[in-house]
Every structure is written in structure tokens, then in C-alpha cells.
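Thread title: Can someone regenerate the structure for this chain?

I was given the following input by a collaborator and told the matching C-alpha cells would be attached. They weren't. Posting the sequence so someone can regenerate them.
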Amino acid sequence: MNVRINIIVALLVLAMSAAMCLRAETSNHPKTVIFDTDMGNDIDDLLALQMLINYEKAGKISIAGIAISKDNPLSAEVTERYYNRYGIGNPQFGRVYDGPNKDTGNYLEPVLCALKKGCIPVNKEKEEKQEAWEMMRKILIASTDSSVTIISTGPTVNLARLLMSLPDSLSCLDGRELVSKKVRLLSIMGGDYSGSGVAEWNILQDIPSSRYVLDEWCGELVASGFEIGKNILFPHQCIESGFSQNHPLRIGYEHFLQMPYDRPCWDLTSVLYAIEPDGGWFDLSDRGKISINEEGVSEFMPSADGTHRYLRLKRDDLSKTLTDRAASNCSHK
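Best answer:
Regenerated them for you:
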């Protein structure tokens, strides 16, 4: 009898140990991330990309895809070249066509020159790349259920087209079914939840897409509003001390606005929550549904069965946290 009890106890111990190991492996497994960015509209997109690269190097995430929601070929080229220079993975890339924001902006050309290590004349002809929504669809089809985190820091045109996508030869699921099955979280920088009644910039760039995405997205969605990032500033000193003089990110920052300036960290807050949701920096609103009215103003309706929430700032000292993650060599002053 004692022998039988000892065997049972030993088996239970082994089972518990295996379960603990499995939980440890699961918790340590890098998150699969798709980054959807309008690179070139604001410098915080480039800071957010560098932040994601640093997370990937630390083993916290695997960047499966990078989508471009700015309809300018330089946006796609700069993003891909920058990642290939400083990243360590092998993500897929895709860009929007017939989308918003066709301008070149202030920093894409000088950053591209820096990435090419010389101011070679920029080729402004469109280089054919796969559509961003098609790229995202392929990644979702190949992913396990509830495994993909999407971080959106620009207009939602790519997400809208993904949701509208039809079944194809790779999957019998349409876009909405695919998102519901494969995406664990959409962390989006968009809207204003302060009660200001003002339309936020990302939403305004493509109001129809914004309305469609927030109407149709039935999975977990957490929005970082304009009011969150506007007072969290990225110190220009961290650009100067964290990056060499000829580093493309520093060159981009210096060309975006006249130095010295400290840029609000809108996009970085969506990255931080997506990768470190339990860091203690944010509270979440009640569950509910975010919608966009015809003028582009975000509205939130609480609902017990809702899947949308928005961030509330819990701590006001996030500047150091974000600069540590984007510019690891920063000398804080």
C-alpha cells in the first residue's frame, strides 16, 4: 500500500512539475507581433520601431510582419531598410496602395540617405510590394489561434481591408473570422478619450476605415488616446546621447522638427502596453465599445460584454521608461 501511495505521489509531483514547466515556457515564449505604422508622418513611428527591435533583441517578441499605412513608397523603403539594418528577425513587409498621406514628409529622405550611407538620389517611383492586408492575412493564416498581437500606430486602412478580405486558396475564413480566431490583442494608438470632443489625427486621416474597424472589431482591443501620449515627452538629450551623430534615427529626429525639441510619445505607449501590459503604468477603462462619429470623434459606450477598452495613465513618469526601451544608451539628465 505504501509503495502504491509513493508511486501516486511521485506521479503527481511529476505532473505538477511538467505543468509548471509548460507554464514557464508559455510565459517566456516571445509574442508574435504585427506592426502597422504610418512611418514618415511623425517621428514617434521610427522611435516605436526601434523600441520593437529592442524588444525583439531581448527575446520578448518576434516581429512577424510590418505593414505600412502611409501611401508613399519612401515610407515602405525606409521602414524595411531600417529594420534590415538594425533588426534580427525576418518579418514580412507590406504597404498600402490607394491609401492616405501620400506626402514625403520631413524626414524620410534624409533617413533613407543615411541608411544608404550617402545621399544617392532618391527613387520616387513605386516599387511593387505586396499589399499590407494580404501580408497580414498570410501571417494570421499560418499562426496558431489567439497568438498574434497587432500594434497599429497610424490610419486603420490596412486593418479595414484585412477585415473586409474574402476567403482564398489559403483559408476558408474571411477577414473578420480570421481576426477573431487568430488575434489575441489589437493595441491601437487612436482616438481621444478625455471628453474633449476633438477628433484625433490618426482617426481623421481615414474616417471611413476608422469607423469600420471599430464597428467590426469584436476581439480584444485597447486604445491609447491622444491624451495619454501628449504629456509623455521623449527628451532630445536621449536622441543625442543614445544614438551616434550619423545614426538614421537621430538624423530623422533632427529633420522632423527644429532641434532642440521633446516629442510626445503617442505611438510608444501602444507598444509599451502591448508588450508589457502588466508593468503597472496604465489602468484600463471598463469594457465597452468604441465608435467613431461622422466627424471623426471617438465615443465610448460601457458594456459588460464589450471587448474594447482604452488606457488611463496610472503613472506620470513614463518618459524614462519609454526612453530606456527605445534608446537603451540614453544618459538621463
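The two ends are 69 Å apart (CA to CA).
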